Structures are given as structure tokens and as C-alpha cells.
Amino acid sequence: MTYNKILVPYDSSKLSDSALEHAIKIAKMSISYSAENIVNVILFYVTPVIHIPFTIATVLLKSNKTGETIALDQYIKELHQEIKENSIKMLDEKIKKYEGVENVSLQSKVIIGEPADEIIKYANNEKIDLIIMGTTGLGGVKKFVFGSVARNVSEKAPCPVMLIR
């Protein structure tokens, strides 16, 4: 099996760094089998949605950008945008580290949403061949109560998923 598109959900943790390292190794091995002679590795960061109850959506706060008084829901939108901009910078720095890897193209994608859902949707839409992601290996009650992005992705992904511990 060849992997032309490898998706690496990335959150700047040591586990996601390890997942990226594995993705680069697999990409290098896949190059000789790739019809296109290039393997795309996509660093994918999902900023989780901050849900606010409707009853407090009109609470007023001071904007970090303009200093004006704005509603909480607008403040959350500004916060998401700031997180997205910082995430893009973080991924771009990570990509620079691997710029010299021959025939491996690194790209980044940052979106706002529910992490597992967005990873699965992107993998479907972009016809990803392999997902490589870190997992903490939640067990017992924690796994039952909190679930796991890695577990959800591995159960619902349209392609193979490699979990790195």
C-alpha cells in the first residue's frame, strides 16, 4: 500500500511530535512506491469550539483587539481567530524543521470545530490515505466519561489510522 496523503492531527504535544516523526519516516518509505513521486504530509490543528450558554451570550467584555465593549459571543469569535493565527504560526515553525526532506511536501491546515469530527470530515473530503496521531491511552472511567479523539477517529476514519504512544 502506498501513502500519498498522510494526515497528522497536531496539538504541539510530545505525542503529536512523535506522530509527525513517524509520518515523515513513512512518507520517505512511500516515495519510491508513489505514482506521483511525492508524498503530502498535512499537519492538522483543530481549535475546539467554546460553547457558551445562550443566557450569558450577551455578557459584555472588553475586546482584546479594539478595546471596545463587545458581547461574549463576539469575544469568543475574536479568541478563536487569535488561537487560529497562533496555531498557523506554530505549524509553520514545525514545517520549517522538515523543509529539507526530499519529495515530502508538508502543509498545514487549521480549523475551528470538534476535533474528532473535523479530522474525519477532512480525511473523507481530501481522500487521505493514512492518519497518524498521538494518543494518551485513556483507560477505565476516564475513557468512558471523556471519550477519546483518537478512539473516535480510529473507529470512524475512512482510512487506516496509526496511533502513537
Which characteristics define this entry?
Rossmann fold; two-stranded antiparallel sheet; 5 helices; single chain; 42% helix; alpha/beta; 165 residues; elongated; 5-stranded parallel beta sheet
Q: Could you list the spans in which at least 5 consecutive residues all have pLDDT below 50?
A: 140-146
Oligomer: single chain
Order of helices and strands: EHEEEHEHEHHE
- Helix share, percent: 40-55%
Give the C-alpha Rg.
18 Å
How large is the share of residues in beta strands?
15-25%
Q: Overall mean pLDDT score? A: 88
Please provide the count of β strands: 7
Q: By helix and strand content, what is the structural category?
A: alpha/beta
Task: Give a concise summary.
By secondary structure, the chain is an alpha/beta fold. It has helices spanning 14-31, 72-97, 115-125, 140-146, 149-156, and strands spanning 5-9, 39-48, 60-62, 69-71, 104-113, 130-134, 161-164. The strands form 2 sheets. A 5-stranded parallel β-sheet has the order 5-2-1-6-7, sandwiched between helices. A two-stranded antiparallel sheet has the order 3-4.
